[in-house]
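Sequence and structure are kept together here, with a separate record for every protein. A complete record is shown below as an example:
=====
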Amino acid sequence: MHPGVLDTNQPYSSSHEIWKGVTTNHGVSFTWTPITQNSSRDNLRPIVPPWDQNHTALLWFRATYNSAQSIDGAPVGLVDRRTESFAPMTYVDATTTNTTLATGAALVTGSGTGQWHLRTGNGNGGSLLASADVTAEDAPMLKTTVSVPAAGIYDVWVNFWGNPVGGADWRIMGGLATNQMQIFRQMACKTVQPGDYNSTLVLTNTSTNFLYQAYVGRVTASSSNTISVFVDDNAITVGTTSALAGNTNRTWYDGVSYAPVDRFRITGVAYNAGGSSTTITWNSTPPELSLTTPTYTVWKKNSLAEPDWTVVATGVPSGGTATSCVDTSANGNAAFYRVSIL
């Protein structure tokens, strides 16, 4: 910031965080919204690469910057798609009922080396699936199958636990197919935030362990209304190809999260005949979850034969996951509306 520039919500964190600053007065003051928060690693060198008018991407790397030649980090990013709207995530707990071995064989938990352990008293649902939490081991790959409300397209995450202090490097492997597995370390993943979900989750265990989310991809649910996610442990020590380590490289697998991918659209029109008004509602992205702080314009025609659209309102700010606008001049027999993103 330049001397003399006034800020609201000035950013501060013990780690380098990324913030979005919005100004409405040519930089005299800014309102700041965190893109990252409560990070245990630094978030460095953000860039917004050129794309198109419907897509915005923010890329950076999350890392511990030991020196110019020693960096322990990973590239991460966010994508805004203007043609889609935000939907809260739904969490599904991984259990021995919905989780099998990747081969389809039943999951039998136990205390043996190379076996998944059912750890009770931790996680959501009162338990989680653990590997290498004490002994160095390699447990078999798992498959969790969850039911979704309807056939369609869904974004999918795996949820696992991590400990950001004391040299811990908890991680998980996840993917939508056995040949598409990725390693997700806690240092490169996002801690779960309560506002991202449509239910209340257990987010921390005595403030030392925290629930993380790792994005595994986008999948089309079949007519059976189910999706499958593959999960594995990965106790291999960083910098080696095969050396296993227990405790620090553990996997605590809790469950799967999904969110429907919904196109940006008008979801409701309510006519008030007595007040000659119409309320138009559409799905939208909350400003704190957007890279571009969307605003909307509502357009109207009384007849499709009319050559031009009339602006009902412009600069309408996002109201969260749903935004509404009232047309106070709805005094005709019919009207047609559309909404565009600025």
Notes: The radius of gyration is 24 Å. Residues 67 and 73 are 12 Å apart (CA to CA). The chain has three domains: 6-79, 90-260, 263-341.
